[in-house]
Amino acid sequence: MTARRTVAGRIAARLGTSLLVLWGAVTVAFAALHLTPGDVADVLIGDSTVTPEVRAQIVREYGLDRPVPVQYLTYLGRVLHGDLGRSYQLHESVGEAIGSQIGPSIQLALTAFALAATVSVTVATLTAKRRRWVRGLFSGLELVGVSVPSFWAGILLLTLFSFTLGLFPVTGGLALPAVALAVPVIAVLTQVLREGLEIALDEPFVLTARSRGMGDLAVRVRHALRHALLPTVTLAGWLVGVLFGGAVIVEQVFSRPGIGRLTLAAVAGKDLPVVMGVVLVSAALYVVVNILLDVLYVVIDPRLRSAS
Amino acid sequence: MTAVAIRPRRIPRAGVWAASLFVAVVALAALLPAVLAHGSPSDVDAVAALRPPGAAHLLGTDANGRDVLTRIVYGARPSVLAGLGATALAVAAGTVLGLLAALGGRVLDEVTMRLVDVLLALPGLLLALLVIAVVGPGTFNAILAIAAYTLPSYARLVRAQTLVIRRSGYVEAATSLGLTRGRIVLRHVLPNAFAPLLVVATIEVGTALVAAASLSFLGLGPRPPAPEWGAMLSQGRDYFSVAWWMAIFPGLAITLTVLSVTVVGRHLQRRVEGRLA
């Protein structure tokens, strides 16, 4: 009973936060529109040229001739209907522009995440509570991993594997960009996982498992790892940010199509509707990932499951 | 911004010394670049263009025949200033927000902290790009953009610290002595909240430095002829099939600086936490 209430409570709290984040993101975007110097219609048009008729249409659609609170509600209503506005530079709606570019970015982010998860779970499981020099060596590597900017990691990988060894294509490949994007994630995830594992390995249930004659690796994988995974769930927001923000830079290094290129072109051309759209989509992504992880949390931690 | 609490591990003494030494060298390069490098960072020598590292040019030359080492030394000032400037701005703004939240009553607290939640939920770099889309590219605007997305975690930290300090004996004593609210904040709350804030800021200078270099790399920070590490890397990117040294060495400078700052910061963190515990 209590367990079920906890689950319901958690979901309600999470939904509340999610709505707040989305509403906040829309408000930040609206504020950005109005903080930009110049007429709001000009800001929406950006550096592109449009006819007076189109301009009049923008004023009407956004309610720019009405008071600011009304404009805000108009904007909120449009976003709620999935309308992120129009890019007058690209001659298409922001939704279409993002939709056509998000595929390669998601592919890159998911590949990098899969790589990072595999590497950090493996390294953490194998090195937790080992000899001092093993842990020292890996802690040092992790420190370097956090410090390496992803654009430099990308250039290093290209210089080494594409130009010197000729193993990977200079453009079009997925492996090198994914590695460059995964480096900081691996560094942080491994540290958090190892810390969790070391705490779990001191718990009495580990001793019980060992006394039953369970092998060391089995104890680590079947008992300790589950506990070590819990704290990583709180990293979700950071993870979405690193993968999504990092993709902007990595795509630039490897000349890959995607959200990064779209966003940079929009920033350079003062195409504010596109930049705002990307920020809103990333906020939505953050919310979705958090909800998914909440479900995963219940799967990992049986204490949260209904007692019935 | 890594909003992740990782218990700092003890770093070997030699590592802390090496890191401190490197931070000192970078500081010297930023303050007095002429001491470490001969010549000017903008000396163009078309004959010596794209020379690989050698005796005459330790780290090679770029496409205009400018000495890469000289440019890295002169690049320390803008690169480090961007990281320090963004951090200082974020700490100042975060402190004000955190104090407002902790001392300004329930409504203000809720509003400020929910705003912080929202800002932390948006990917930092994208938020910085949104700020730049609004204010335009440039050195100062890049600093502003980085400060905008790093300040939420400082606001959270200052709020938490203030809430603890407010319930402490010495603040109660000061209140019962009839000190004004402003005086208590200035004389008692701020100084005590500052040590942990400074430690976090030291570590985060590295993050801000990378963020600043990233924005320059994307062409949104200082404009090219300026010797800035991120901008140098971006130029080097166009030549890396023929002159790898143009991009590799500025990147190495960024990485070693961030690594050293992080090592020194974590060392300080261990010491401060050891003292507070």
From TrEMBL, chain A:
What does the record give as the organism's lineage?
Answer: Bacteria, Bacillati, Actinomycetota, Actinomycetes, Streptosporangiales
Q: Locate the ABC transmembrane type-1 domain: which residues? A: 102-297
At the top level of its lineage, which domain of life is listed? Bacteria
UniProt source species: Microbispora corallina
Q: Provide the alphabetized UniProt keywords.
A: Cell membrane, Membrane, Transmembrane, Transmembrane helix, Transport
Q: Where are the transmembrane segments?
A: 12-33, 106-128, 140-168, 174-193, 228-254, 274-300
Primary localisation category: membrane
Instruction: Please give the name of this protein.
Output: ABC transporter permease
> Which Pfam family would be a valid example here?
BPD_transp_1_N
Q: Which family does it belong to?
A: Belongs to the binding-protein-dependent transport system permease family.
Q: How does it sit in the membrane?
A: Multi-pass membrane protein
Protein location = Cell membrane
**InterPro entries, A to Z:** BPD_transp_1_N, MetI-like, MetI-like_sf
TrEMBL record, chain B:
> What InterPro entries does the record point to?
BP-dependent_transpt_permease, MetI-like, MetI-like_sf
**Compartmental location:** Cell membrane
**Keyword Transmembrane found:** yes
Q: What is its main location?
A: membrane
By its UniProt entry, which Pfam families does this protein fall under? BPD_transp_1
Family assignment? Belongs to the binding-protein-dependent transport system permease family.
Membrane topology per the entry is: Multi-pass membrane protein
Q: Which UniProt keywords apply?
A: Cell membrane, Membrane, Transmembrane, Transmembrane helix, Transport
Name this polypeptide is given: ABC transporter permease
**Organism from which the protein derives:** Microbispora corallina
Q: Is Lipid metabolism among the key words of this record?
A: no
Chain segments annotated as transmembrane: 80-103, 115-134, 140-158, 193-222, 242-265
**Residue ranges annotated for the ABC transmembrane type-1 domain, each copy included:** 76-265
Tell me the domain of life. Answer: Bacteria
Q: Which SUPFAM superfamilies match?
A: MetI-like
